[in-house]
Each structure stands twice: as C-alpha cells, then as structure tokens.
C-alpha cells in the first residue's frame, strides 16, 4: 500500500523552505539565484542560463551530483490567460554523455503528487535506464506547487482523534480537520491553488519542451508521473517521440473507485496471508487452517475495535491498526504475524498506530524537500471526483467493508478533499498515435495492475506485464533494457517480464 503521510507535517516547515529563496508569506513561493528565468519558447536550451544544481540550488539534496544543471522556466499560472500572472518551474538536466550520439530529450517524471522530482536525471542515470544517459539529455522538473518551483507552503496542523470515539466519529473528526486545513491553505493563494492540476503540469512540460528548442520529447513516467504523461500525450500527441509509463495511475481519477481497487488487491493478499499463517501455526498460534486463522485475526480486530489499548508514546492498538496489517503482500507477512501475535498476547508491537492521524501519500520516492500537502490535495481534488461529502464517503467505506471484510473500508484518497473550495474538473485520456508503452506489476497494491489494463484500453499503446508486487520496479530490473531499446528504436514489448524476487 502507499506509504503514510503524517498530517502534522512536522518536517515540512523546515524542509520546504529549502528552496531557492524564502517564499512570500501568503502567496505561491518562488525566487532563485538562478539566472535566465524568462527564456523565450523556441529559442533553445541555451537561451536559459544553466548552472550546476549542487552549487546553485539551496540545500540541493544530492550534493555529490556535480553534473546536473538547473534553471527556471516561466509559464502562465493559468493557461487560459497566457498574458496573466506567471509562475516559475524548476528544471534540471544531464546532457547526453556522448554528444555525437545524442538522439534527443527524455523527460522523467518519477512520482508524486506533492513531492520533488528534480533529481530524477541523476537518479535514473544510475539505474537500469543509465544507457540512455549516453544518447539522451535527461530532463527532470519540480511540478508546479512543489520543491524548487513556485508553491504554497501551508502546515495542515496536527490531528488528534477523539479518545474512545467510534470509527465513524474518528473519521468525521479527520474529515472536519481536513476541511479546515484546506480552507486555510487554499485561502493563502486561491488563484494558484485552483491551477494545481495534472493538465497544467502537462502544459508546463510542453513549455519546457519549447524552451529546450526541440519539436518532440520522449517521456518516462512512473506512478503519478504516468498521469502527467497521459495528459501530455492527450494534449500534445504530435510532440511525443516515445512514451513509457510504469506502475500506472487509473485513466480516470474517481477517488472512491481508487479506494476500492486498493482494497481488492489487499483482500487478495489477505487470503494468501491466512493460508501462510495456518502453515506457521506452531510459531504464531492463530490456527492450523486458513479458516481458523481468519477467525482468530477477526476476533482480535473486533476486540481492539470495541476496546482500543494505549501502546505508549502516543500510540494505540485498535481495529484500524489490525486492518492495516491484513492486506500486506508476502514480504510483510512475517512482520504482520509477529505484531498481531504480540498484541493478542498483551504486548506492544513495533507497528503500534500513532494516535495522531496518518494516511497515504500517493508516490514512491522519498521527497527530498518534504511533502507539499497543498499540491498533493490540489492535484487530487481539482480533478478527482468524490470526497466532498462525509456521509457519502462513509457509506462507500461501509460498502467496501462488506465487500472486502478483512481489508475494506479505508478512506485513503477522498478524505483529502474535505472542504475543497472548487468542484472537480475530471480529465480523461485521449487515444493517440504516438508510440506508447505501458508496464504494470501484476500483484502490486499501490497502483493496481487493473489500472494499467484500463489505461491501454483508454489511451492505446502496448502492455508489458511485470511479474512482481513491487511498485515502479521496472528501472531496477534486467528488463529495463526493454525500455532502453524502446526509446532508442521504438520497439515495444508485450508478454511478461520477471520482476523483483
């Protein structure tokens, strides 16, 4: 499942100011010691003043990287008003190591929302896509609202669930907390917050293409970066050389459907878990058959739902804690069994749930500049449907508990849109003619494989099935050479690919 996002964002205030200059208090942030900000589209990359990122960008998270260059590109905040307010997008590049073999530009968008992507060129030059650094300029960027690009900095505050409250009352308290935070944070710069959309990020990518002076770009997108890629291809199909999308977002951001898809994968994992647990009954004592193990785990969950137990240091054991362990894939079964047995026997497991609220962030990389929660919420809520009405949100969660009795009912995506001040404007991909390769991971939960299948149905392209449960693992696998071949020759890949073991 996605990693957890702490509502307090205690580290964000310190990390997010590690931008190029301090932001104005109540506006989208920005500013930089970098020159050449307002480069004219079409005049080529040298119209920008490129400087070494490690010595130019304050608190550059990869100080050992001496080859990446950084610049800022100015774009319209609202593309419907191209002559209106401008914002700045931070861009990095690694020039092709062998200029004589240079084939073009590969833009890399490795994840999010809410996290910095600007170190992607140096990161991907060190993984399975490294051969492409020889004959492509690798280009990364911080999407609007994140990292070194213009952004809003706003701390959501700390959420403490009401003591001894029902699950519904706790969920409602979190919903109300998020509504207040969204109201406060969007009010800092409502015009900017309203323009935090995937479509605008895709338009920013095209502005980067234009200022680089190339007629087409290739694009490698991962996780949320696949949504950026799909939107770019839908808007600018003729400007795509080749595009590969790994661990793919759904073609429609229906937040309730996204929760349901995650629950379905987790429930399948649970079926495997209780079978494994029965086979390890001499060690964990939950029952020697899958049915008995299932009943014992449910009994523990029901007990802690009725009577949560404090676990010290601001943590507690409750039914939601049990549920969070039941949908793990096979790599987490031993840990889950150990912690569940510890709780059953009266001890305090290592994974005891913090009393302050936590919830998922949809991405896979650690964010070097911290999570920007306003951008995270903006991307999902400006374009994703659902999450505005608590009663509907709760009814949907209860329905999923009935459908998926072990793992269903988590409110993962919709809760972030509580009190969001604007209606959703959903995007849908358009079938294009440019070369599109999609890779999905058959057992992963973060971006379920079904989303890759749905994307190919909606947008076209070719599907490669990676046989693992790992999110975004393609660039770390031997079959990364298929991506290298695709970007060099256009040859697509079908069938299956061995995954991470």
**Corresponding CATH architecture of the largest domain:** 3-Layer(aba) Sandwich
Number of helices: 17
Which structural class do you get from the secondary structure elements? alpha/beta
Q: What top-tier CATH class of the largest domain fits best?
A: Alpha Beta
- Report, as a whole number of angstroms, the end-to-end distance: 18 Å
- What's the multimeric state? single chain
Average of per-residue pLDDT values: 87
Describe the overall structure:
The protein has 501 residues and is α/β, with parallel strands linked by helices. It is built from 17 helices and 15 strands. It has helices spanning 12-16, 53-56, 120-124, 132-135, 167-188, 190-194, 198-212, 224-235, 255-279, 281-284, 290-306, 319-326, 333-344, 373-383, 390-403, 449-459, 480-489, and strands at residues 4-6, 51-52, 69-76, 86-94, 104-109, 136-141, 217-223, 240-248, 309-312, 315-317, 353-354, 358-360, 436-441, 462-467, 496-498. Strand 14, helix 17 (480-489) and strand 15 (496-498) form a beta-alpha-beta unit. Helix 7 crosses helix 8 and helix 11 (290-306) packs antiparallel against helix 12 (319-326). It is globular and about 65 Å long. The model is unreliable at 1-42 and 356-368 (pLDDT under 50).
Write the layout of secondary structure elements.
Blueprint lengths: L3 E3 L5 H5 L34 E2 H4 L12 E8 L9 E9 L9 E6 L10 H5 L7 H4 E6 L25 H22 L1 H5 L3 H15 L4 E7 H12 L4 E9 L6 H25 L1 H4 L5 H17 L2 E4 L2 E3 L1 H8 L6 H12 L8 E2 L3 E3 L12 H11 L6 H14 L32 E6 L7 H11 L2 E6 L12 H10 L6 E3 L3
Parallel strand pairs: 5-6, 5-7, 7-8, 8-13, 13-14, 14-15
Antiparallel strand pairs: 1-12, 2-3, 3-4, 4-6, 9-10, 10-11
Helix pairs in contact: 7-8, 9-11, 11-12
GO molecular function: hydrolase activity
Protein name: Alpha/beta fold hydrolase
Keywords: Hydrolase, Signal
């Amino acid at each position: 499942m996605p990693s957890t996002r702490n509502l307090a964002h205690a580290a964000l205030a310190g990390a997010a100011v590690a931008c190029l200059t301090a932001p104005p208090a109540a506006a989208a942030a920005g500013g930089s010691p970098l020159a050449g900000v307002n480069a004219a589209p079409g005049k080529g990359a040298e119209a920008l003043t490129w400087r070494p990122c490690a010595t130019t960008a304050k608190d550059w998270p990869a100080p050992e990287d001496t080859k990446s260059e950084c610049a800022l590109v100015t774009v319209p905040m609202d593309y419907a008003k191209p002559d209106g307010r401008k914002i700045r997008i931070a861009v990095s590049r690694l020039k092709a190591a062998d200029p004589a073999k240079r084939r073009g530009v590969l833009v890399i968008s490795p994840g999010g929302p809410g996290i910095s992507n600007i170190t992607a060129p140096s990161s991907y030059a060190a993984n399975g896509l490294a051969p492409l650094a020889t004959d492509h300029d690798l280009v990364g960027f911080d999407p609007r609202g994140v990292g070194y690009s213009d952004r809003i900095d706003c701390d959501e505050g700390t959420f403490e669930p009401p003591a001894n409250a029902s699950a519904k009352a706790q969920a409602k308290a979190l919903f109300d907390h998020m509504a207040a935070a969204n109201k406060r944070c969007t009010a800092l710069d409502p015009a900017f917050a309203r323009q935090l959309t995937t479509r605008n990020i895709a338009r920013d990518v095209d502005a980067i293409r234009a200022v680089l002076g190339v007629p087409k770009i290739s694009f490698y997108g991962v996780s949320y970066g696949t949504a950026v890629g799909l939107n770019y291809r839908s808007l600018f199909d003729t400007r795509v050389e080749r595009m590969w999308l790994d661990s793919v977002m759904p073609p429609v951001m229906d937040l309730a459907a996204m929760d349901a898809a995650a629950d379905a994968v987790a429930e399948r994992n649970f079926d495997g878990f209780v079978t494994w647990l029965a086979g390890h009954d001499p060690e964990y004592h939950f029952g020697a058959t899958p049915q008995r193990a299932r009943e014992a785990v449910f009994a523990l969950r029901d007990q802690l739902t009725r009577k949560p137990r404090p676990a010290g240091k601001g943590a507690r054991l409750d039914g939601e804690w049990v549920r969070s362990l039941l949908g793990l894939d096979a790599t987490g079964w031993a840990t889950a069994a150990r912690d569940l047995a510890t709780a059953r026997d009266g001890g305090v497991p290592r994974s005891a749930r913090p009393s302050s609220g936590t919830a998922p962030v949809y991405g896979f990389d650690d964010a070097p500049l911290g999570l920007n929660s306003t951008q995270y919420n903006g991307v999902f809520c400006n374009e994703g449907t659902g999450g505005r009405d608590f009663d509907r949100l709760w009814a949907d969660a209860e329905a999923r508990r009935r459908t998926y009795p072990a793992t269903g009912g988590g409110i993962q995506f919709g809760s972030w849109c509580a009190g969001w001040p604007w209606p959703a404007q959903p995007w849908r991909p358009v079938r294009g003619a440019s070369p599109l390769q999609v890779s999905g991971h058959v057992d992963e939960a973060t971006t379920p494989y079904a989303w890759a299948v749905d994307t190919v149905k909606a947008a076209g392209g070719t599907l490669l099935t990676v046989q693992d449960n790992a999110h975004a693992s393609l660039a770390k696998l031997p079959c990364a050479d298929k991506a290298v071949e695709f970007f060099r020759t256009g040859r697509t890949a079908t069938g299956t690919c061995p995954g991470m073991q």
